């Protein structure tokens, strides 16, 4: 059979297979049921569900979603879930049944969630993307993506629903943690790295998975920061900001893309033919697969109300360019009838099936549908991956304040009290899209501090003090007693994206874990958890204020998934570390920073406001947005690109190779960066460009380059950036990229509000 002959071109194999398929089999390739429902585990034995077997025989199954996903939504726990080896065996069993019991033997596309690690039991839990963004270390992230791809593919997962390339415009949004930040250039750099890392040199490699870019597009700019809310954005801004990371990732070869839930100017992205057809397919040349988000087609008839019923919604989606429906039933329920009733052209169905089959061939699933369970057992959660998680976490921690050099702490500095709801709650530091974890696999801040200082009795005290959201103050007395005995208080506050994993709760009066029938949820962040404020939840601030009255040195560590705006803490804490959700090795990474074994190098990729009333506060807004409110100016508390170090860096001698260039020519800007402090450290050198006057309004300045460098004490290095069309152009008349002649200000420095500048004139001709 031609389609089974690996020596034939993929296009030829696809057309041959397509010609053999019935309409029912074609529709089957476009549906993606929930994978965890296809099997059961009883007494260590994996058995396939009868419903899955019937579906395979009755037209087939194109893909499965979250086959190895474990979390409260799936109901898969540590007790009922599969080990890395068992997961690989289960996927092999699923594939074998599908291949051997369907008419044409088409393998199944196994799609998995891998936002910051494969969301399966045993998978390494890396820091969330917001933390990864704060590292400004694209190479390290590429290494992480290679590790995630290896862990996922070793169990049979062939496509991942990541990276998230949304540009955050309102951090009240619960999914802020899943994003890299507020700047499209920065996100674009990570976008390219993710495609290169996840997909490797070849999709059919046993260590590669297909990347799915999401959410296309504007998802991070929803009305009021509410998940999937309408987006109010003009075409020019959409092209310059939100589309840029997707375009760069498509150019890098991304294999799949996912439209967003939201609407833009009245059109849901799921059926936006201009986005999916004119721009994505025709203008950008994307030839990969388009898959919906979960339940997105249902929303057309019940939510957006742009479809009369399910049939109408399914036909609209497929006609607009959707190739596969994630986790829904609309395609399976309606598409064949739509063909039979002439509501849908057969050629439209064929085109979608063609793209799905092409991806399967590119992934090598027809030649290598099975995996080796022994490899999964060896690579998943390996020491190398755990060490990588620790390094990423450390580089993503941002030192926001260090009054009087309160940090680093001396290891012989007396008694330390580690206090707070996030001090010893492992799940609270992992972020959303995380599988259940054995307690020993997550290092909390308390664990990290104890490991750093050794097992000295009464040297490290602990009290939870309060919970994240709960208003109970019953733990205050115990927390204050611990703080009173200490020389330094490390106060670990923030938020939680931990869903109900059934781990019980903490006794606030003793700090001991306890199991209850009605464990309290501390979740105040994550998908679907949007907030009206950026203040700390519950009574965390009140507890900090009570502890401060004791006059102890107070170090605040934030563990959270969105910026926190708490002016009192900004003013009264001796030092503040923003750790975001740092993953399973977060406790070690935070302790490395606290005690100076690692010099902090993280920089903010989100502007942190003084108050939620300043929103939106992203740095690259238009010049015309105004200077201040009655109560306060419009500047954030901590600006984009900001982050302190235990050493000092100075910038000098900014120079341009030429201060006049023609359109199409380039200039090189150089600057000297000196470590003028007393210890080695890493600095993120940031390049910004300001178009002084333009035909259409522009942001005051935009990030156009960055470089993370390491300098020994006293070392000086000349850093250079090339300035050309890529850095100077914008979307001009007729929505075309243009470099206009005129004056540009080139700025290089440590953050957006602290730069040296030089003027560059661009001339015609």
From TrEMBL:
Coiled coil: none annotated. It comes from the Bacteria. The keyword Oxidoreductase does not apply. Pfam families: Fn3-like, Glyco_hydro_3, Glyco_hydro_3_C. The keyword Hydrolase applies. SUPFAM superfamilies: (Trans)glycosidases (SSF51445), Beta-D-glucan exohydrolase, C-terminal domain (SSF52279). GO terms for molecular function: beta-glucosidase activity. Residues 683-752 form the Fibronectin type III-like domain. Keywords: Hydrolase. One of its GO terms (biological process) is glucan catabolic process. Belongs to the glycosyl hydrolase 3 family. PANTHER family: BETA-XYLOSIDASE, PERIPLASMIC BETA-GLUCOSIDASE-RELATED. This is Beta-glucosidase.
